[in-house]
Amino acid sequence: MQGWKRAVVFGSLGAGALLLLGGRKAPGMIMAAAGLAVLASEYPDAFETVWQDAPVYIDRGVRIFSALSAIGERVAEEAARSGGRAWRDMVTE
Q: Domain locations in the chain?
């Protein structure tokens, strides 16, 4: 990849991330999409493979998020039930 393309990709993805973190969703998504479009134009075969495998990646992500949510709920329930004693016991071990 040429230097200017690499600068455009990393610059727009970085600016998009900063805008998203700063709460400016629309400009952040536009910047990130621009960076991904330039990257996709450079590596179309790789993006086609990712696009075809996207449902698998999304399913795995949803499963991981669900498991983490369940763990978080259990920890919160245990902390509420024991008045935070379980959390203090976990931290001190």
A: 1-42, 44-93
